[in-house]
From TrEMBL:
Keywords: Pyridoxal phosphate, Transferase. It comes from the Bacteria. Pfam families: Cys_Met_Meta_PP. This is homocysteine desulfhydrase. Belongs to the trans-sulfuration enzymes family. It is an enzyme of class 4 (lyase). It comes from Nonomuraea cypriaca. It catalyses: L-homocysteine + H2O = 2-oxobutanoate + hydrogen sulfide + NH4(+) + H(+); L-methionine + H2O = methanethiol + 2-oxobutanoate + NH4(+).
Length: 387
């Protein structure tokens, strides 16, 4: 089955939908049974059976089936947030005394969660490349976690190479695939064991939901669904699942539009004298472009630039002068957004992540590329004067 059919039709012609053009939203908190024996059987298999909202329900289940199919995974589990999915996934794979390798830059709260696990005896090491992995791996290492493209810097990881390295050493791999969406990159087909997403971004697509998902083999998803998912209580609501389903319907249309507008803006910025660097894997000048073309079928519109300044005031002035780009966190919706870590992140944390003062993250939305470029051009006029 192709991705467009999965997004628009998978599971939507089944009898329980009753012909509704939008699949029903099951709002009930529980399901009842004809006999005690049926209830007992359902509770023992609550990862697949409808018992209580905290487990799953038909609306959430449909979203999970679509997302698993898009990633070419056997199963998927939706959570109430991206961090719900990430924390439950990591927790399901490690125990006291275990060690985690983190390859490249990853989402800040993911690192915070790994630091949190230290009080339970789980340690981690950040490394830049496979050579670093070779040096940092221990007998107690169980998990290799990474993003590609990476957080803020948008460096590209050779996914088959990393997955193969980990497999040879008996490690489980978990990759955050939020940047690309399952339309533009399918890590499970390249050897990664589990894939996580923030559904709040491109998959939702309208900045109106918070959610997360993990997809992969039944062998890894089932114990996670029965234990961490249930105990952490980060259940996705049926209404948010319905928004995910609606977001998926337009994802094949939205992502090429994001790609087109994002690349147009990136090309403009690459030639601007007030910009030192543009970190967009879709540009031929990007160090990881050849790898990206080999393992991705498209590019999203989230990237960063480094302004030609060491002044926080110049960065703040640039943001304040923008009119089409709104200042805010998150990304992946219709609206274009801008954010600058130097204005909101502790200097020590920023230094650890290698983020310069002038780095600005852009999420190019679905507005006219010409309008966005004009907006940026006017805002950049003042950068040189304040640098």
């Amino acid at each position: 089955m192709d991705d467009e059919w999965i997004c628009g039709r998978l599971g939507e012609d089944e009898p329980w939908v009753m012909g509704a053009v939008n699949p029903p939203v099951f709002e009930n908190s529980l399901f009842t049974f004809a006999t005690a024996e049926e209830l007992g059987d359902a509770v023992r298999n609550e990862d697949e059976r409808y018992v209580y909202w905290r487990g799953t329900n038909p609306t959430v289940d449909l979203a999970q089936r679509k997302l698993a199919a898009l990633e070419r995974g056997e199963r998927a589990k939706c959570f109430g947030s991206g961090m719900g999915a990430i924390s439950a996934t990591i927790s399901s794979l490690v125990s006291a005394g275990d060690h985690v390798l983190v390859l490249g830059a990853v989402y800040g709260p993911t690192t915070q969660f790994l630091r949190y696990l230290e009080k339970y005896g789980v340690t981690h090491t950040h490394v830049d490349d496979l050579a670093g992995c070779d040096s940092a791996i221990r007998a107690s290492t169980r998990l290799l976690y990474f993003e590609s493209p990476s957080y803020m810097a948008y460096a590209v990881v050779d996914i088959p190479e990393v997955a193969g390295w980990a497999r040879e050493r008996g490690l489980v791999t978990v990759m955050d695939n939020t940047w690309s969406t399952p339309l533009f990159q399918k890590p499970l087909t390249m050897g990664v064991d589990l894939v996580v997403h923030s559904l709040s971004k491109y998959i939702g697509g309208h900045s109106d939901l918070v959610g997360g998902v993990v997809a992969g083999s039944s062998r890894l998803i089932r114990p996670l669904a029965l234990t961490e998912y249930q105990l952490y209580g980060a259940a996705m609501s049926p209404h948010d699942a319905a928004k995910v389903i609606k977001g998926l319907r337009t994802l094949p249309v939205r992502m090429p539009a994001h790609q087109e507008r994002g690349l147009a803006v990136a090309r403009f910025l690459e030639e601007h004298p007030a910009v030192r660097a543009v970190n967009h894997p879709g540009l031929p000048s990007h160090p990881g472009h050849e790898i990206a073309v080999r393992q991705m079928s498209g590019f999203s519109s989230l990237f960063s630039v480094v302004l030609d300044t060491e002044s926080r005031e110049a960065v703040a002035s640039f943001l304040d002068k923008l009119r089409y780009f709104r200042i805010g966190v998150s990304w992946g919706g219709f609206e274009s957004l801008v954010n600058a870590p130097a204005l909101s992140t502790e200097e020590s944390v920023r230094a650890t992540m290698g983020i310069p003062v002038g780095l600005v993250r852009l999420s190019v939305g679905l507005e006219s590329a010409d309008s966005l470029i004009k907006d940026l051009a006017l805002a950049l006029e003042g950068v040189a004067r304040l640098a």
